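Aim 2, interim progress. The first record below pairs a target sequence with its C-alpha coordinates.
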Amino acid sequence: MRIVFLISACVSIIAVVLICVFLFVNGVPAMAEIGFFDFLLGETWRPTSDIYGIMPMILGSIYVTAGAIIVGVPLGLLTAVFMAYFCPPKLYKVLKPAVELLAGIPSVVYGFFGLVVMVPLIRTTLGGRGTSMLTASLLLGIMILPTIIGVSESAIRAVPRSYYEGSLALGATKERSVFFSVLPAAKSGVLAAVVLGIGRAIGETMAVIMVAGNQPRMPDGLLEGVRTLTANIVMEMGYAQDLHREALIATAVVLFVFILIINLSLSLLRKRSK
Protein backbone atom coordinates (compact mmCIF):
# COMPACT_ATOMS: atom_id res chain seq x y z
CA MET A 1 0.00 0.00 0.00
CA ARG A 2 2.91 2.34 0.71
CA ILE A 3 4.09 1.86 -2.88
CA VAL A 4 0.72 3.08 -4.18
CA PHE A 5 0.95 6.21 -2.03
CA LEU A 6 4.55 6.78 -3.12
CA ILE A 7 3.66 6.39 -6.81
CA SER A 8 0.73 8.80 -6.42
CA ALA A 9 2.95 11.39 -4.75
CA CYS A 10 5.65 11.00 -7.40
CA VAL A 11 3.14 11.40 -10.24
CA SER A 12 1.80 14.60 -8.67
CA ILE A 13 5.28 16.04 -8.22
CA ILE A 14 6.37 15.07 -11.74
CA ALA A 15 3.22 16.67 -13.21
CA VAL A 16 3.92 19.95 -11.41
CA VAL A 17 7.58 19.91 -12.46
CA LEU A 18 6.71 19.22 -16.11
CA ILE A 19 4.20 22.08 -16.17
CA CYS A 20 6.78 24.46 -14.68
CA VAL A 21 9.45 23.32 -17.15
CA PHE A 22 7.09 23.74 -20.11
CA LEU A 23 6.08 27.25 -19.03
CA PHE A 24 9.55 28.56 -18.33
CA VAL A 25 11.29 26.87 -21.28
CA ASN A 26 8.78 28.37 -23.73
CA GLY A 27 7.96 31.60 -21.94
CA VAL A 28 11.26 33.02 -20.69
CA PRO A 29 12.96 33.06 -24.15
CA ALA A 30 9.94 34.97 -25.50
CA MET A 31 10.32 37.53 -22.72
CA ALA A 32 14.01 37.87 -23.55
CA GLU A 33 13.27 38.34 -27.26
CA ILE A 34 10.57 40.93 -26.65
CA GLY A 35 12.44 42.55 -23.76
CA PHE A 36 11.53 41.89 -20.13
CA PHE A 37 10.59 45.49 -19.38
CA ASP A 38 8.86 45.99 -22.72
CA PHE A 39 6.85 42.83 -22.09
CA LEU A 40 5.93 43.45 -18.45
CA LEU A 41 5.56 47.24 -18.53
CA GLY A 42 4.41 47.79 -22.11
CA GLU A 43 0.96 49.35 -22.43
CA THR A 44 0.20 48.16 -25.96
CA TRP A 45 -0.78 44.65 -27.04
CA ARG A 46 -0.79 44.48 -30.84
CA PRO A 47 0.30 41.05 -32.14
CA THR A 48 -0.11 42.11 -35.79
CA SER A 49 2.73 44.60 -35.25
CA ASP A 50 4.75 42.29 -32.96
CA ILE A 51 4.09 44.57 -29.99
CA TYR A 52 3.50 42.58 -26.81
CA GLY A 53 2.95 44.64 -23.67
CA ILE A 54 0.90 42.95 -20.96
CA MET A 55 0.65 45.74 -18.37
CA PRO A 56 -3.05 46.35 -19.24
CA MET A 57 -3.80 42.68 -18.60
CA ILE A 58 -1.76 42.63 -15.38
CA LEU A 59 -3.63 45.64 -14.02
CA GLY A 60 -6.92 44.22 -15.26
CA SER A 61 -6.33 40.97 -13.36
CA ILE A 62 -5.27 42.82 -10.20
CA TYR A 63 -8.22 45.23 -10.25
CA VAL A 64 -10.82 42.58 -10.99
CA THR A 65 -9.41 40.26 -8.33
CA ALA A 66 -9.23 43.08 -5.78
CA GLY A 67 -12.86 43.97 -6.51
CA ALA A 68 -13.89 40.34 -6.09
CA ILE A 69 -12.10 40.15 -2.74
CA ILE A 70 -13.76 43.38 -1.54
CA VAL A 71 -17.15 41.87 -2.40
CA GLY A 72 -16.58 38.22 -1.52
CA VAL A 73 -14.45 38.21 1.64
CA PRO A 74 -16.71 40.22 4.00
CA LEU A 75 -19.86 38.52 2.70
CA GLY A 76 -18.31 35.05 2.84
CA LEU A 77 -16.78 35.52 6.29
CA LEU A 78 -19.99 36.88 7.80
CA THR A 79 -21.93 34.01 6.24
CA ALA A 80 -19.46 31.50 7.71
CA VAL A 81 -19.84 33.07 11.17
CA PHE A 82 -23.61 32.95 10.86
CA MET A 83 -23.59 29.31 9.80
CA ALA A 84 -21.19 28.28 12.56
CA TYR A 85 -22.77 30.12 15.52
CA PHE A 86 -26.10 31.77 14.78
CA CYS A 87 -27.86 29.72 12.11
CA PRO A 88 -30.95 27.75 13.28
CA PRO A 89 -30.62 24.01 12.58
CA LYS A 90 -33.56 23.95 10.16
CA LEU A 91 -32.17 26.83 8.14
CA TYR A 92 -28.68 25.29 8.21
CA LYS A 93 -30.01 22.17 6.51
CA VAL A 94 -31.09 24.36 3.59
CA LEU A 95 -28.25 26.90 3.59
CA LYS A 96 -25.36 24.42 3.66
CA PRO A 97 -26.45 22.47 0.54
CA ALA A 98 -27.16 25.76 -1.22
CA VAL A 99 -23.59 26.95 -0.61
CA GLU A 100 -22.22 23.61 -1.78
CA LEU A 101 -24.43 23.86 -4.88
CA LEU A 102 -22.86 27.25 -5.70
CA ALA A 103 -19.46 25.56 -5.75
CA GLY A 104 -20.67 23.02 -8.31
CA ILE A 105 -22.14 25.47 -10.83
CA PRO A 106 -19.96 25.63 -14.00
CA SER A 107 -18.17 28.88 -14.77
CA VAL A 108 -20.02 29.28 -18.07
CA VAL A 109 -23.34 29.28 -16.20
CA TYR A 110 -22.09 32.09 -13.97
CA GLY A 111 -21.01 33.85 -17.14
CA PHE A 112 -24.46 33.52 -18.69
CA PHE A 113 -26.02 34.85 -15.48
CA GLY A 114 -23.69 37.84 -15.57
CA LEU A 115 -24.33 38.45 -19.27
CA VAL A 116 -28.12 38.18 -19.07
CA VAL A 117 -28.80 39.70 -15.64
CA MET A 118 -25.87 41.75 -14.34
CA VAL A 119 -24.71 43.42 -17.56
CA PRO A 120 -28.14 44.91 -18.47
CA LEU A 121 -28.73 45.88 -14.82
CA ILE A 122 -25.45 47.79 -14.55
CA ARG A 123 -25.94 49.32 -18.01
CA THR A 124 -29.36 50.73 -17.10
CA THR A 125 -28.51 51.85 -13.55
CA LEU A 126 -24.92 53.11 -13.81
CA GLY A 127 -24.45 53.67 -17.54
CA GLY A 128 -21.73 52.44 -19.85
CA ARG A 129 -21.85 49.25 -21.88
CA GLY A 130 -22.41 46.97 -18.90
CA THR A 131 -19.49 44.70 -19.76
CA SER A 132 -16.97 46.24 -17.41
CA MET A 133 -14.50 45.83 -14.57
CA LEU A 134 -17.32 46.34 -12.05
CA THR A 135 -19.45 43.57 -13.53
CA ALA A 136 -16.53 41.14 -13.58
CA SER A 137 -15.62 41.99 -9.97
CA LEU A 138 -19.17 41.48 -8.72
CA LEU A 139 -19.53 38.20 -10.59
CA LEU A 140 -16.20 36.87 -9.33
CA GLY A 141 -17.15 37.98 -5.82
CA ILE A 142 -20.17 35.69 -6.06
CA MET A 143 -18.12 32.84 -7.52
CA ILE A 144 -15.56 32.80 -4.69
CA LEU A 145 -18.21 32.74 -1.96
CA PRO A 146 -18.45 28.93 -1.67
CA THR A 147 -14.68 28.60 -1.22
CA ILE A 148 -14.45 31.31 1.42
CA ILE A 149 -17.57 30.19 3.27
CA GLY A 150 -16.62 26.50 3.34
CA VAL A 151 -13.01 26.92 4.48
CA SER A 152 -13.82 29.72 6.95
CA GLU A 153 -16.67 27.77 8.53
CA SER A 154 -14.44 24.73 9.02
CA ALA A 155 -11.73 26.91 10.59
CA ILE A 156 -14.23 28.59 12.92
CA ARG A 157 -15.75 25.27 14.01
CA ALA A 158 -12.24 23.92 14.73
CA VAL A 159 -11.75 26.53 17.49
CA PRO A 160 -12.52 24.97 20.90
CA ARG A 161 -15.96 25.92 22.19
CA SER A 162 -14.35 26.99 25.46
CA TYR A 163 -13.06 30.17 23.77
CA TYR A 164 -16.61 31.26 23.01
CA GLU A 165 -18.06 30.15 26.35
CA GLY A 166 -15.24 31.76 28.34
CA SER A 167 -15.80 35.07 26.61
CA LEU A 168 -19.53 34.87 27.36
CA ALA A 169 -18.76 34.10 31.00
CA LEU A 170 -16.64 37.27 31.20
CA GLY A 171 -19.64 39.35 30.10
CA ALA A 172 -19.10 39.75 26.36
CA THR A 173 -22.02 39.57 23.97
CA LYS A 174 -22.35 36.68 21.53
CA GLU A 175 -21.18 38.83 18.63
CA ARG A 176 -18.14 40.19 20.49
CA SER A 177 -17.27 36.68 21.66
CA VAL A 178 -17.21 35.45 18.08
CA PHE A 179 -15.36 38.39 16.54
CA PHE A 180 -12.84 39.01 19.32
CA SER A 181 -12.24 35.49 20.68
CA VAL A 182 -13.12 32.89 18.06
CA LEU A 183 -12.09 34.61 14.82
CA PRO A 184 -8.57 35.58 16.02
CA ALA A 185 -8.01 31.94 16.95
CA ALA A 186 -9.22 30.85 13.51
CA LYS A 187 -7.27 33.46 11.53
CA SER A 188 -4.93 30.91 9.97
CA GLY A 189 -7.84 29.06 8.38
CA VAL A 190 -9.55 32.31 7.42
CA LEU A 191 -6.37 33.51 5.69
CA ALA A 192 -6.25 30.21 3.82
CA ALA A 193 -9.83 30.78 2.69
CA VAL A 194 -8.98 34.27 1.44
CA VAL A 195 -5.92 33.03 -0.47
CA LEU A 196 -7.94 30.23 -2.06
CA GLY A 197 -10.54 32.80 -3.04
CA ILE A 198 -7.86 35.00 -4.60
CA GLY A 199 -6.51 32.01 -6.50
CA ARG A 200 -9.99 31.19 -7.80
CA ALA A 201 -10.62 34.79 -8.82
CA ILE A 202 -7.30 35.44 -10.55
CA GLY A 203 -7.46 32.13 -12.42
CA GLU A 204 -11.07 32.40 -13.60
CA THR A 205 -11.47 32.68 -17.36
CA MET A 206 -14.81 31.82 -18.95
CA ALA A 207 -17.08 33.96 -16.77
CA VAL A 208 -14.69 36.92 -17.00
CA ILE A 209 -14.54 36.73 -20.79
CA MET A 210 -18.32 36.98 -20.98
CA VAL A 211 -18.73 40.10 -18.80
CA ALA A 212 -15.43 42.03 -18.68
CA GLY A 213 -15.46 43.62 -22.13
CA ASN A 214 -12.00 42.27 -23.05
CA GLN A 215 -10.43 45.46 -24.41
CA PRO A 216 -6.60 45.17 -24.26
CA ARG A 217 -6.10 48.69 -22.95
CA MET A 218 -5.13 50.32 -19.67
CA PRO A 219 -8.05 50.25 -17.19
CA ASP A 220 -9.47 53.72 -16.73
CA GLY A 221 -12.70 53.25 -14.78
CA LEU A 222 -15.01 50.78 -13.08
CA LEU A 223 -17.51 51.01 -15.93
CA GLU A 224 -14.92 50.47 -18.66
CA GLY A 225 -13.97 47.12 -20.16
CA VAL A 226 -10.79 45.30 -19.18
CA ARG A 227 -8.93 42.18 -20.26
CA THR A 228 -7.34 39.82 -17.73
CA LEU A 229 -4.28 37.63 -18.20
CA THR A 230 -6.32 34.44 -18.42
CA ALA A 231 -8.79 35.95 -20.88
CA ASN A 232 -5.93 37.15 -23.08
CA ILE A 233 -4.47 33.64 -23.26
CA VAL A 234 -7.77 31.91 -24.02
CA MET A 235 -8.96 34.42 -26.62
CA GLU A 236 -5.79 34.34 -28.74
CA MET A 237 -4.13 30.96 -28.22
CA GLY A 238 -6.31 29.27 -30.83
CA TYR A 239 -4.80 31.20 -33.74
CA ALA A 240 -1.46 32.36 -32.30
CA GLN A 241 1.79 31.32 -33.98
CA ASP A 242 5.52 31.77 -33.49
CA LEU A 243 6.37 34.74 -31.22
CA HIS A 244 2.71 35.49 -30.59
CA ARG A 245 2.16 32.01 -29.17
CA GLU A 246 5.33 32.21 -27.08
CA ALA A 247 4.22 35.60 -25.73
CA LEU A 248 0.96 34.02 -24.56
CA ILE A 249 2.91 31.27 -22.82
CA ALA A 250 5.05 33.99 -21.22
CA THR A 251 1.80 35.54 -20.01
CA ALA A 252 1.02 32.23 -18.32
CA VAL A 253 4.45 32.40 -16.64
CA VAL A 254 3.54 35.80 -15.18
CA LEU A 255 0.24 34.38 -13.94
CA PHE A 256 2.09 31.44 -12.41
CA VAL A 257 4.44 33.83 -10.59
CA PHE A 258 1.45 35.76 -9.24
CA ILE A 259 -0.03 32.58 -7.76
CA LEU A 260 3.37 31.66 -6.32
CA ILE A 261 3.68 35.07 -4.65
CA ILE A 262 0.20 34.68 -3.16
CA ASN A 263 1.07 31.27 -1.70
CA LEU A 264 4.36 32.54 -0.28
CA SER A 265 2.54 35.48 1.28
CA LEU A 266 0.15 33.07 2.97
CA SER A 267 3.07 31.06 4.36
CA LEU A 268 4.69 34.22 5.75
CA LEU A 269 1.42 35.37 7.32
CA ARG A 270 0.94 31.98 8.94
CA LYS A 271 4.46 32.07 10.40
CA ARG A 272 3.91 35.55 11.83
CA SER A 273 0.55 34.53 13.32
CA LYS A 274 2.10 31.66 15.30
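The second target in this work package is listed in the same format:
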Amino acid sequence: MSVFSSTGSHSLQDESEPVYSVHQDYIATIVLNRPEKLNAITSSMWKRLHQAITTLSGDDSLRCIVIRSSCAKAFSPGCDIDEFAKCRSDKSQAQAYGRLMHDTLNAFWHCPIPVVAEIRGICIGAGLEIASTCDFRIASETCRLGAPVKNLGLVMAYPELEPLLQLAGKDVVLEMLLEGKIFNADEALQKRLLTRVVPDDQLADTVARTVSNIVSGAPLAARWHKKFIRRLTTDISPITPEEYDECFDCFDTEDFRTGCRSFLRHIHPVFKGK
Protein backbone atom coordinates (compact mmCIF):
# COMPACT_ATOMS: atom_id res chain seq x y z
CA MET A 1 0.00 0.00 0.00
CA SER A 2 1.27 3.49 -0.85
CA VAL A 3 2.60 5.50 2.07
CA PHE A 4 0.18 8.20 0.93
CA SER A 5 -2.94 6.08 1.33
CA SER A 6 -5.68 8.04 3.06
CA THR A 7 -6.74 4.99 5.05
CA GLY A 8 -6.54 5.81 8.73
CA SER A 9 -5.09 9.23 8.09
CA HIS A 10 -5.82 12.22 10.25
CA SER A 11 -6.44 15.55 8.53
CA LEU A 12 -4.68 18.47 10.22
CA GLN A 13 -6.51 21.03 8.08
CA ASP A 14 -9.65 21.30 6.00
CA GLU A 15 -9.07 19.65 2.61
CA SER A 16 -11.27 22.26 0.94
CA GLU A 17 -8.72 24.95 1.83
CA PRO A 18 -6.01 26.13 -0.62
CA VAL A 19 -3.35 24.68 1.71
CA TYR A 20 -3.95 21.68 3.94
CA SER A 21 -1.90 18.95 5.56
CA VAL A 22 -2.52 15.30 6.29
CA HIS A 23 -0.62 13.31 8.91
CA GLN A 24 -0.45 9.53 8.73
CA ASP A 25 1.89 7.42 10.84
CA TYR A 26 5.41 8.91 10.47
CA ILE A 27 4.60 10.98 7.37
CA ALA A 28 2.92 14.34 6.84
CA THR A 29 1.85 15.74 3.49
CA ILE A 30 1.32 19.43 2.80
CA VAL A 31 -0.91 19.99 -0.22
CA LEU A 32 -1.12 23.11 -2.38
CA ASN A 33 -4.78 23.04 -3.36
CA ARG A 34 -5.80 25.95 -5.54
CA PRO A 35 -6.09 24.23 -8.92
CA GLU A 36 -8.29 26.89 -10.50
CA LYS A 37 -5.28 29.25 -10.29
CA LEU A 38 -2.61 26.54 -10.71
CA ASN A 39 -1.67 27.15 -7.04
CA ALA A 40 -0.72 30.79 -7.48
CA ILE A 41 0.19 31.66 -3.90
CA THR A 42 -1.78 34.29 -1.99
CA SER A 43 -0.89 35.92 1.32
CA SER A 44 -3.43 33.68 3.07
CA MET A 45 -1.73 30.64 1.53
CA TRP A 46 1.64 31.83 2.85
CA LYS A 47 0.04 32.05 6.31
CA ARG A 48 -1.34 28.52 6.03
CA LEU A 49 1.96 27.19 4.73
CA HIS A 50 3.76 28.80 7.66
CA GLN A 51 1.24 27.34 10.09
CA ALA A 52 1.57 23.89 8.56
CA ILE A 53 5.36 23.68 8.42
CA THR A 54 5.93 25.17 11.89
CA THR A 55 3.37 22.83 13.45
CA LEU A 56 4.81 19.78 11.72
CA SER A 57 8.40 20.78 12.51
CA GLY A 58 7.57 20.51 16.19
CA ASP A 59 6.13 16.99 15.90
CA ASP A 60 8.74 14.53 17.20
CA SER A 61 6.80 11.58 15.80
CA LEU A 62 7.31 12.64 12.18
CA ARG A 63 10.08 11.19 10.03
CA CYS A 64 9.30 12.82 6.69
CA ILE A 65 7.24 15.67 5.23
CA VAL A 66 6.08 15.80 1.61
CA ILE A 67 4.85 18.93 -0.14
CA ARG A 68 2.91 18.43 -3.35
CA SER A 69 0.14 19.88 -5.48
CA SER A 70 -3.42 18.71 -6.00
CA CYS A 71 -3.16 20.07 -9.56
CA ALA A 72 -1.73 17.93 -12.36
CA LYS A 73 -0.58 20.99 -14.33
CA ALA A 74 1.45 22.83 -11.72
CA PHE A 75 3.30 22.74 -8.44
CA SER A 76 2.97 26.54 -8.38
CA PRO A 77 3.54 29.41 -10.84
CA GLY A 78 4.59 31.68 -7.97
CA CYS A 79 2.84 34.45 -6.08
CA ASP A 80 -0.60 35.52 -7.26
CA ILE A 81 -0.02 38.71 -9.24
CA ASP A 82 -3.71 39.58 -9.05
CA GLU A 83 -3.13 40.25 -5.36
CA PHE A 84 -0.23 42.68 -5.84
CA ALA A 85 -2.40 45.79 -6.08
CA LYS A 86 -3.66 45.34 -2.54
CA CYS A 87 -0.66 43.81 -0.76
CA ARG A 88 2.54 44.59 -2.75
CA SER A 89 1.82 47.92 -4.39
CA ASP A 90 4.64 49.80 -2.64
CA LYS A 91 7.70 49.22 -0.50
CA SER A 92 5.86 49.31 2.82
CA GLN A 93 3.30 46.72 1.72
CA ALA A 94 5.98 44.60 0.09
CA GLN A 95 8.03 44.55 3.29
CA ALA A 96 5.08 43.20 5.28
CA TYR A 97 4.34 40.62 2.59
CA GLY A 98 8.03 39.76 2.40
CA ARG A 99 8.30 39.08 6.13
CA LEU A 100 5.45 36.59 5.90
CA MET A 101 6.88 34.95 2.80
CA HIS A 102 10.43 34.82 4.13
CA ASP A 103 9.38 33.54 7.54
CA THR A 104 7.65 30.69 5.72
CA LEU A 105 10.61 29.92 3.46
CA ASN A 106 12.94 30.00 6.48
CA ALA A 107 10.64 27.62 8.36
CA PHE A 108 10.92 25.13 5.48
CA TRP A 109 14.66 25.77 5.16
CA HIS A 110 15.28 25.09 8.85
CA CYS A 111 12.78 22.25 9.30
CA PRO A 112 14.55 19.49 11.29
CA ILE A 113 12.56 16.76 9.50
CA PRO A 114 13.47 15.56 5.99
CA VAL A 115 11.26 17.33 3.43
CA VAL A 116 10.50 16.01 -0.06
CA ALA A 117 9.00 18.17 -2.82
CA GLU A 118 6.89 16.31 -5.39
CA ILE A 119 6.99 18.59 -8.44
CA ARG A 120 4.61 18.18 -11.33
CA GLY A 121 4.21 20.73 -14.12
CA ILE A 122 4.97 24.42 -13.62
CA CYS A 123 7.31 25.34 -10.78
CA ILE A 124 8.09 29.03 -11.16
CA GLY A 125 9.08 31.92 -8.90
CA ALA A 126 7.88 31.36 -5.34
CA GLY A 127 7.00 27.77 -6.26
CA LEU A 128 10.66 27.16 -7.07
CA GLU A 129 11.70 29.03 -3.94
CA ILE A 130 9.63 26.67 -1.77
CA ALA A 131 10.98 23.63 -3.59
CA SER A 132 14.57 24.87 -3.18
CA THR A 133 14.23 24.77 0.62
CA CYS A 134 13.37 21.04 0.52
CA ASP A 135 15.89 18.23 0.93
CA PHE A 136 14.70 16.28 -2.12
CA ARG A 137 13.10 17.71 -5.26
CA ILE A 138 11.61 14.89 -7.32
CA ALA A 139 9.98 16.03 -10.54
CA SER A 140 8.01 14.79 -13.51
CA GLU A 141 9.78 14.96 -16.86
CA THR A 142 7.31 17.57 -18.14
CA CYS A 143 7.97 20.06 -15.34
CA ARG A 144 9.35 23.54 -15.98
CA LEU A 145 11.40 25.59 -13.50
CA GLY A 146 12.50 29.19 -13.41
CA ALA A 147 12.12 32.63 -11.89
CA PRO A 148 11.58 35.25 -14.63
CA VAL A 149 11.02 38.07 -12.14
CA LYS A 150 12.90 40.43 -14.47
CA ASN A 151 9.67 40.69 -16.42
CA LEU A 152 7.89 42.10 -13.36
CA GLY A 153 10.64 44.39 -12.14
CA LEU A 154 10.88 42.37 -8.94
CA VAL A 155 13.97 41.53 -6.92
CA MET A 156 14.56 38.26 -5.10
CA ALA A 157 15.47 39.05 -1.51
CA TYR A 158 18.31 37.36 0.36
CA PRO A 159 16.13 34.67 2.02
CA GLU A 160 14.83 33.66 -1.42
CA LEU A 161 18.26 33.58 -3.05
CA GLU A 162 20.18 31.63 -0.42
CA PRO A 163 18.63 28.16 -0.94
CA LEU A 164 18.84 28.51 -4.73
CA LEU A 165 22.50 29.54 -4.55
CA GLN A 166 23.22 26.59 -2.27
CA LEU A 167 21.66 24.25 -4.82
CA ALA A 168 22.75 25.53 -8.20
CA GLY A 169 25.35 28.24 -7.72
CA LYS A 170 25.68 31.80 -8.95
CA ASP A 171 25.78 31.12 -12.69
CA VAL A 172 22.49 29.20 -12.81
CA VAL A 173 20.69 31.69 -10.58
CA LEU A 174 21.88 34.55 -12.78
CA GLU A 175 20.60 32.71 -15.86
CA MET A 176 17.16 32.64 -14.29
CA LEU A 177 17.16 36.18 -12.91
CA LEU A 178 18.96 38.15 -15.62
CA GLU A 179 17.96 36.18 -18.73
CA GLY A 180 14.65 34.88 -17.46
CA LYS A 181 15.57 31.30 -18.36
CA ILE A 182 12.92 28.62 -17.88
CA PHE A 183 14.50 25.18 -17.61
CA ASN A 184 12.96 21.89 -18.65
CA ALA A 185 13.30 18.94 -16.30
CA ASP A 186 16.50 17.56 -17.79
CA GLU A 187 18.17 20.97 -17.77
CA ALA A 188 17.08 21.58 -14.18
CA LEU A 189 18.47 18.20 -13.16
CA GLN A 190 21.78 18.93 -14.87
CA LYS A 191 21.93 22.30 -13.11
CA ARG A 192 21.23 20.67 -9.71
CA LEU A 193 17.88 22.35 -9.17
CA LEU A 194 16.31 18.88 -9.03
CA THR A 195 17.29 15.68 -7.24
CA ARG A 196 15.80 13.31 -9.83
CA VAL A 197 13.42 13.31 -12.78
CA VAL A 198 10.99 10.52 -13.67
CA PRO A 199 8.19 9.96 -16.18
CA ASP A 200 4.96 11.66 -15.17
CA ASP A 201 3.15 8.40 -14.45
CA GLN A 202 5.96 7.27 -12.12
CA LEU A 203 6.23 10.42 -10.02
CA ALA A 204 3.94 9.44 -7.13
CA ASP A 205 5.47 5.97 -6.81
CA THR A 206 9.01 7.36 -6.95
CA VAL A 207 8.24 9.85 -4.20
CA ALA A 208 6.60 7.10 -2.15
CA ARG A 209 9.72 4.92 -2.44
CA THR A 210 11.95 7.83 -1.47
CA VAL A 211 9.80 8.57 1.57
CA SER A 212 9.79 4.88 2.52
CA ASN A 213 13.60 4.82 2.36
CA ILE A 214 13.81 7.86 4.63
CA VAL A 215 11.22 6.61 7.10
CA SER A 216 12.89 3.21 7.44
CA GLY A 217 16.09 4.79 8.78
CA ALA A 218 16.87 5.98 12.28
CA PRO A 219 14.93 9.28 12.62
CA LEU A 220 17.28 10.89 15.13
CA ALA A 221 20.24 10.21 12.83
CA ALA A 222 18.35 11.84 9.94
CA ARG A 223 17.70 14.95 12.00
CA TRP A 224 21.31 15.15 13.14
CA HIS A 225 22.58 14.75 9.58
CA LYS A 226 20.31 17.55 8.38
CA LYS A 227 21.53 19.78 11.19
CA PHE A 228 25.22 19.04 10.60
CA ILE A 229 25.04 19.47 6.83
CA ARG A 230 23.18 22.77 7.16
CA ARG A 231 25.80 23.98 9.63
CA LEU A 232 28.68 23.11 7.30
CA THR A 233 27.08 24.67 4.24
CA THR A 234 25.79 27.92 5.75
CA ASP A 235 28.31 28.85 8.45
CA ILE A 236 32.03 29.12 7.73
CA SER A 237 33.03 29.58 11.39
CA PRO A 238 35.01 26.73 12.99
CA ILE A 239 33.09 23.89 14.60
CA THR A 240 32.95 24.47 18.34
CA PRO A 241 33.87 21.80 20.91
CA GLU A 242 30.21 21.57 21.88
CA GLU A 243 29.17 20.99 18.27
CA TYR A 244 31.86 18.35 17.81
CA ASP A 245 30.71 16.63 21.00
CA GLU A 246 27.16 16.40 19.62
CA CYS A 247 28.43 14.14 16.83
CA PHE A 248 28.68 11.34 19.39
CA ASP A 249 25.29 11.74 21.08
CA CYS A 250 23.87 9.07 18.79
CA PHE A 251 25.88 6.38 20.62
CA ASP A 252 23.74 6.87 23.72
CA THR A 253 20.46 6.31 21.86
CA GLU A 254 18.23 3.28 21.82
CA ASP A 255 18.18 3.51 18.03
CA PHE A 256 21.95 2.95 17.88
CA ARG A 257 21.67 -0.18 20.00
CA THR A 258 18.73 -1.39 17.90
CA GLY A 259 20.65 -0.82 14.68
CA CYS A 260 23.72 -2.70 15.88
CA ARG A 261 21.70 -5.66 17.20
CA SER A 262 19.69 -5.88 13.99
CA PHE A 263 22.81 -5.78 11.83
CA LEU A 264 24.45 -8.59 13.77
CA ARG A 265 21.27 -10.68 13.65
CA HIS A 266 20.68 -9.95 9.96
CA ILE A 267 17.21 -8.53 10.57
CA HIS A 268 15.60 -5.25 9.58
CA PRO A 269 15.83 -2.67 12.40
CA VAL A 270 12.68 -1.10 13.81
CA PHE A 271 13.66 2.31 15.12
CA LYS A 272 11.69 4.21 17.76
CA GLY A 273 13.36 7.59 17.56
CA LYS A 274 14.79 7.32 21.05
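The CA atoms of residues 15 and 21 lie 8 Å apart. This observation will shape the mutagenesis plan for the next reporting period.
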